[in-house]
Amino acid sequence: MSRVIGIDLGTTNSCVAILENGQPAVIPNSGGYKTTPSMFAITQDGKRLVGHLAKRQAVTNSKATVHGAKRLIGRRFDSPEVEHSRELCPYDIVEGPNEDARIEIGGKNFTCPEISAFILREMRRVAEEYLGEPVQEAVITVPAYFNDAQRQCTKDAGKIAGLEVLRIINEPTAAAMAYGFNRTGEEKIAIYDLGGGTFDISILEMSDGVIEVLATAGNTFLGGEDFDRRIVSHLVDAFREAEGIDLTQDAMALQRLKDAAEKAKCDLSQRETVEINLPFIASDDEGPRHLSMEVPRETLERLVDDIVRGTLKTVDQCLQDANVGVGDIDQVILVGGQSRMPLVQQAVADHFGKRPHKGVNPDEVVAIGAAIQGEALVSEDDNMLLLDVTPLSLGIATFGGHFAKLIERNTTVPVCKSHIFTTTRDNQSAVKIRVLQGEGDIAQDNDLLGEFVLGGIRPARKGEPEIDVSFDIDANGIVSVAARDTATGKEQSITVNATGTLSDDEIQNIIEEQELYEVALKE
Ligand code: AMP
Fold first, then answer.
1. Residue 153 CB contacts under 8 Å (≥ 6 apart), including other chains
2. Are 73 and 143 in contact (CB under 8 A)?
3. The pLDDT of residue 276
């Protein structure tokens, strides 16, 4: 029987785990590391690199090295999030035919699922090398706050990587599964997940193998990279003041600054002060210039204080949605690399009035939970039951630009709900169903997931026809919608084809193209 792997596809790093003899284990890559950078690059001579190999050459090849593709997956090109990413990414982000954000490097245009597939394929290879056998099935995790488009695109990425994606599960839920593995009793837990590019908070109830998510909230555009950016700005400002040179104009200098900022940030989790030295960072008529600066922990804490406080506001919203008080929480579990920062740990401890649980490794716990869920799915183990929720409300646009919610956020999935709508004009023969996801009362304040037309409605006065619109969210959090004219029984339905999702033909073309590339490399 082929083994099922759990993959934590992170913004910054990815991790793969399996269940071996009933015990979860993280699989190290060939370099002995338990996490692999979620990076992809094309070298000057056209070679494709993934993981540590891509990271190692990022400084000298920043324009053709992709990091943080998870920030762009399933996003519209014209969204504010993509605009924000442009500031973080030295590579080119271009508009795809589906109004999606694509990545152009090495003279080639890649969809975001394709880039994520390179990382997934690498994780699959790491697992296959370790197990000595092919791997086909996987459970992949996504931030709880990912919308439909982001989930579908992640599933597409799995397919491109040659994986059968048994389930997409939420990262905090996976963390809870790892925590709750072989644990009995009843507990309410909060999972605070601050990774490289996303922040999630989830409140869960665990009771003898049943894990029920009570509420989840988050921000898919806030994470460790924002901390790095604050340090980079601080260094750039200080250098400009001291030397009169703007380092942001030089891509290579900027990449060196980013690397140094991230390293300094991580070192400051252990030390009170660090020194950043970047010799020959710039030059002008008077010769080369060097950057040398001391950064105390307090400076970093001052630079990012508002970001950390901001996460606590989201924590409060989530507690409120879960109808749970801070004092009801039995355990707080920290997930994601950025949660190693002492300021984050202290802020969370103060907020909940208790020290976070220390028994899980924040870098590995999500992949472990995914592996546990994968094994439970293939072995049909019903001792462990997972009841997850949809993070965002779902509905349709109605007359006057309003948003009619059919499924409220934090509803347990899978779920199916329907509602009867009607026409607004006499003899109206068709209705357009615009499917939206979000929390705004006005239609245009929400994400448009897709739209379709139900035609052939029998002639009648306005308000008479009954159009039954039903929404279905499956266990992966993926949405499908159907509309039926109750008089004629005529029905239209779609699995919402959201931004950047690929058709089966497109996926097949990408797979074939990648295979051709691999064959060409071997020749
Ligand atoms: P993840 O997405 O969970 O892999 O988290 C990656 C983020 O965690 C990156 O922004 C890292 O810079 C950050 N990170 C990793 N280790 C530490 C550390 N010891 N202290 C602070 N941040 C860290």
1. 73, 74, 112, 113, 116, 498, 500, 501, 502
2. no
3. 97
DSSP for 390-431 reads -SS-EEEEETTTEEEEEE-TT-EESEEEEEEE--SSTT---E
Catalytic sites, residue numbers: 8, 70, 171, 193
Question: How large a percentage of the chain has pLDDT more than 90?
Answer: 66
Distance between Cα 223 and ligand 1 center (Å): 9
pLDDT mean over 127-139: 96
C-alpha–C-alpha distance, residues 454 and 396, integer Å? 14
Contact criterion met (CB below 8 Å) for 123 and 150: no
Burial of 104 (0-12, 13-18, 19+ CB in 10 A): middle
For the purposes of burial, counting CB atoms within 10 Å of the CB of 313, is it exposed (0-12), middle (13-18) or buried (19 or more)? exposed
Q: At what angle do helices 342-352 and 297-322 cross, to 10 degrees?
A: 40
Mutate to test the pocket of ligand 1, among 219, 266, 335, 360 (most ligand atoms within 8 A of CB): 266
What was the pLDDT predicted at 477? 85
Kindly give the distance from the C-alpha atom of residue 384 to the centroid of ligand 1, in angstroms, as a whole number: 30
pLDDT score recorded for residue 87: 76
Token readout for 403 is 């948003």
Residue 358 · residue 333 · CB < 8 Å: no
The set of protein residues with a Cβ atom below 6 angstroms from ligand 1 is 10-13, 195-196, 224-225, 262, 265-266, 269, 336-338, 340-341, 363
Cα–Cα nearest to 86, from 95, 305, 151, 107: 95
Quote the radius of gyration of the chain (alpha carbons, Å): 24
Coil, helix or strand for 509? helix
Q: Distance, CA 12 to ligand 1 centroid (Å)?
A: 8
Mean pLDDT of 328-345: 95
Among 213, 324, 227, CA closest to 266: 227
The H-assigned helical ranges of 139-203 are 148-160, 171-180
Q: Is 3 left (phi over 0), alpha (psi -120 to 50) or beta?
A: beta
> pLDDT tens for residues 388-436?
899 899 999 988 899 999 999 999 999 999 989 899 899 998 888 889 9
At residue 72, the 3 state secondary structure works out as coil
Q: Which of 8, 9, 11, 12 to mutate to test the pocket of ligand 1 (most atoms within 8 A of CB)?
A: 12
Q: What structural domains and CATH numbers belong to the chain?
A: 4-162+505-522 (3.30.420.40), 224-301 (3.90.640.10), 394-489 (2.60.34.10)
Q: What is the pLDDT of residues 93-130, one digit of tens each?
A: 999 988 899 999 999 999 999 999 999 999 999 999 99
Angle (CA) 429 434 436, round 5°: 160
